[in-house]
Structures are given as structure tokens and as C-alpha cells.
Amino acid sequence: MCCDEYAPNRLVCTKCGKEFNLLEKRIVCDCGGLLEIRLNKSASKLSWNSFRKRKFNLWRYRDLIPLPKDTTIITMGEGGTPLISSFSISKELGLNEFFIKFEGSNPTGSFKDRGMSVAVSFANYLGVKVVACASTGNTSSSMSAYARRARIEPVIVVPKNKVAKGKLSQSILYGATTIAIEGNFDNALEVVLRASSLGLIYPLNSINPWRIEGQKTVAFEIVDELNKVPDWIALPVGNAGNISAIWKGLLELKEFGLVKKLPKLLAVQASGAAPLVNAFRKGLEVPEPINEPETIATAIRIGNPASGQRALKAVRESKGCFISVKDEEIIRAQKLLARYEGIGVEPASAAAVAGILNVLEDIVRKDESVVAIATGHALKDPDVNSSHEYSLLNALNIDEAVGLLRKLTT
Ligand code: F0G
Predict the structure, then answer these.
(1) With 50 as the cut, is the pLDDT of residue 2 above it?
(2) Nearest C-alpha to atom 4 of ligand 1 is from which residue?
(3) 110-207: which CATH architecture?
(4) What's the gap between Cα 388 and its chain centre?
(5) How far is ligand 1, taken at its centre, from the CA of residue 8, in Å?
(6) pLDDT tens digits for 357-406?
(7) Ligand 1 centre from 284 Cα, in Å?
(8) Strand order in the sheet with 130-134
(9) For the chain, which residues make up each domain, given as ranges?
(10) Strand-strand pairing, 35-38 and 10-13
């Protein structure tokens, strides 16, 4: 029997390996490294059948989320999102199995709700009064919603004039105190990190290890629903928390005997904000920041990803690939998804699909199974939606409108 078979769940520094009590409030190690939660081996008694006796949402996997037993779970039924089979795009491309995991159907319209449900539950357990995050818009919407549900004050720091309207309107609705900073997401994150180190707020960006515990559940759901491990999981990457979480989840499934193989990760960045693609190509372990990231996919307009190192390691371990896509390709993929599949996603999510289209046959083979994670709902970014061309016919009255319809249908 291994000596740490019954070791408690613990917080471990990803840089120096130092261990801390799981219930400590700390976010980073004294050495500056990010902390990660390590599960003890008791999870090895789990099975898919035991999970499937529970409702299909992220709390189906409660055994793999090591919140203390007496935690009040702050939930709105997040997770359990649809895995939608692509009818038309896969047929057109000759792809054998292509699915969209539609995270837009989470309570606030993005995958962030998974991490927030878990992390706000923990913040509430700690008795935190004020939570804060830097955000390109989705983290802030999600954090504000879950914080309000837990009666905790939300403070958000966002890049001025760079947050999509749908997202901004959500945090206004939730009444989050908002700091709009001249600069980009990376500057906003610096504000939150500094405020956190001064003990002013409890940070809920994905550097918080509890966020990762929630976000890893999308990997569990994909395997649960498909009843197998796909060959590829494709996803957009910004601050790189999500890809780190997904890889952590997949490694746990393997460690606990719930899967035998692992998928390859196709990590997609916008070409104007692609520090990790550059680092991947150059063989670097640590990305070089980009000072002025720019892309229409504002969600992933990030030049200095906090979890960049973890993401590079994950993609390399998976034998996957980091690739970039141009804004025009993102827009084209968004339109394809909407007009051929009926699936409305925000631009960052479309980047994952644009990535697959770009590397089909070169990196992703047509006989492989692919799941693209659509991280956010189309309603998040109404301005980009409205920039697509469509046929608009004006009618002055009912007769004229019926006349137009007659012309169109005969
Ligand atoms: N897709 C969407 C829709 C996002 O909002 C984000 C990140 C990502 C992908 C990338 O995920 O950062 O974990 O690599 N949005 C953050 C935010 C930055 O503030 O809402 P990541």
C-alpha cells in the first residue's frame, strides 16, 4: 500500500512542490508559484456507474471536488451542458465524429460558472466578505452572479471599452462594483493580484485553485456523455486557466482508473493574442508576454496568461498542439456554426472550430473524433453578431410584408 494512500487532499505549489493545508486561504506559494489541489487516493473507488446515479450537472462529480463536507454549495445547476453532434459541418468536411460541447447553456452563459460555483462555495466557507476578479467579461459576469447568491460583495476590474456589451450588461445587472482600467486584461489582473496580496479582497481569477476544481468537470462530462475518450479536445485559450483545468481533470480520470487513454489538446489562440502559440513553436517553457494583444475575440484578448506555463506543459504532455487563427477565420467559423448547425457562440468559442478547420488533415485526421468546447453564448457579444450580413427587407405595412413573402416563396 502506498504511504500516501490516506494522505489528506492538499494544496501543492506547482513550482517548488511545497505543501499546504487544503483549507488555507492562500492563492500563491511563498515562492510565487501557483497552487494546485491534489486529491488523495480514496477517489480510486469511484466508477462511472456511481456518478450516473446522480443528476447530470457538475455536482455529479462531487467526489472529485474536495470541498469540506459541511460546505454550503452555491449552485444554479451549472454544468450538464449539451454535447451537440455536428450534422452539417462534419458531413461537409468528411469528419467522422465532431461534437460541440455547448458551455453557453450554463446559468450566466459561459463555462466560467463551473469554476465559480466551486470557488464561491469555498469563499463563502471561508467567510469572505469581498471577492474580486480581473476579466474580459465572462469571469466577471459569472463571479458577480455567484457572489450575489452567496451574499458576498463582487468587485470587478475590466479593460475599459473592451468588454462585449452582453457581458458588461450582466455585471451591471448584478450590481458589481466595476473598475474600468485604461489598458488590457493583463493590467486588470495585476490590480487584483496586488489587492489580494494586500489582503483587500479574495481573488476569484483562475489562479485560485478552487476555480480549477470546478472547471475540470467539463472533461468529466465529455467522457461521461461520449462513453469514451475523444481523440481531440479543441478549445480557445486566453489566460489558460481552462485548459489547465481540463488537463488536470483528465489526468485525474486516468489516475483513478476511470479512463485508459487521454485525448490530445488542440489549443487555439487568436493570431493577435498568441503568446502561447509563439512559446509552443519556439519550444519555450515560459511564454514571452505580448504587450498589446488585439483580436475581435475580446474574451481571449490576453498577452500575459497567468497559467501559461501549465498550459504549455498540458498541451505537450497530451501530444497536442497550440495553433493560432485569424480574426476573419474566427468570424467565418462563427457564421458556419450558426448557419449550418444552429449553434450560436461568441467569437472566442468560434476560434476553437476555426482551429480545427485550419489543421484538418495536417494535424487532426478525418477519422479521429473531435470535441470542440464552445465556451460562451452568442448573446454575449451582440455587436459582433450584428456585423454579419443578412437579408433585411423593410415593409411599410402588413400588405407589403405579405407581398414580400409571396415574392420570396413563389
Ligand atoms: N472562451 C471564453 C468565452 C472566455 O471568456 C475565455 C476567458 C476563454 C475562452 C479562455 O479561457 O482564460 O481560461 O484560457 N475569459 C476570461 C474572462 C479571461 O475574464 O472572462 P482561459
Answers:
(1) no
(2) 299
(3) 3-Layer(aba) Sandwich (3.40)
(4) 25
(5) 31
(6) 999 999 999 999 999 999 999 999 999 999 999 999 999 999 999 999 99
(7) 23
(8) 177-181, 153-159, 130-134, 202-203
(9) 1-41, 83-109+211-385, 110-207
(10) antiparallel
